[in-house]
């Protein structure tokens, strides 16, 4: 996608609320559609909960106006519309009821929101400017491409800390091909010291899938897994039969980072689309005036071959 093609997907009502151009992205395509092929555009993105976006003592290089709700909500919607996903998994969503529910419906999306039990956002109820409710997983699909069959959600193992994790599932029929698929969104426990929690969460998720679906079921798993590829959770998912979309496209390698931010005295870069460069982002990391989250959105094209 070139910069010029971005704007053609952005309605005037969104553009008029955005003052600066978005961070530059470029989609790399290496597939060719054959007769009978159908492409599915899948987006995964941790949008950064509004309640957790404050700058003081948190995103220490970020100006308050960059994370103000009236600024961020339009930039978040802009990024979704820019990518034009058929399926979308968003994490840390706390602005569904107050904004995204109405907006995404306008653009042909049906949505399924699952709030986290004991969300960390509930600790900020006194922040009248930014508290919008608990955060959670938001799954979306284009209602002219998919027909919903069933939806469900489940808690992941609770390690006793604030902010329990969940996974959400929508079972769908792809209308053009009549193919069935299962779309799952999740968000594993963050921070390096909680690798064991991520291992337990991966085991619980795989155990649920093994009990619920056959090995022939088409499953797309999208999420913020919050860990490195040398952690046990990653191998657990691979052994369960999943393949990393980026690893398939990048000669058996994962991207060098998917988040770049400065928190307190730390510089944090985490792995997980051709990613924007630090020059594109700017010296103060994310979020920024041009991008509303500390994580970059990840996009992949899946092919259904009939």
From TrEMBL:
| Annotated Endonuclease/exonuclease/phosphatase domain residues | 43-255
SUPFAM superfamilies, sorted: DNase I-like
Q: Which Pfam family, giving just one, matches this sequence?
A: Exo_endo_phos
| Statement: the UniProt record of this protein carries the keyword Hydrolase | yes
Q: A Gene Ontology molecular-function term?
A: 3'-5'-RNA exonuclease activity
GO BP terms in the entry = nucleobase-containing compound metabolic process
Q: Which residues form a coiled coil?
A: none
Q: Which InterPro entries match?
A: CCR4/nocturin_mRNA_transcr (IPR050410), Endo/exonu/phosph_ase_sf (IPR036691), Endo/exonuclease/phosphatase (IPR005135)
Q: Which UniProt keywords apply?
A: Hydrolase
Similarity annotation: Belongs to the CCR4/nocturin family.
Name of protein: Nocturnin
Origin species, per record, is: Rotaria sordida
Taxonomy of origin reads: Eukaryota, Metazoa, Spiralia, Gnathifera, Rotifera
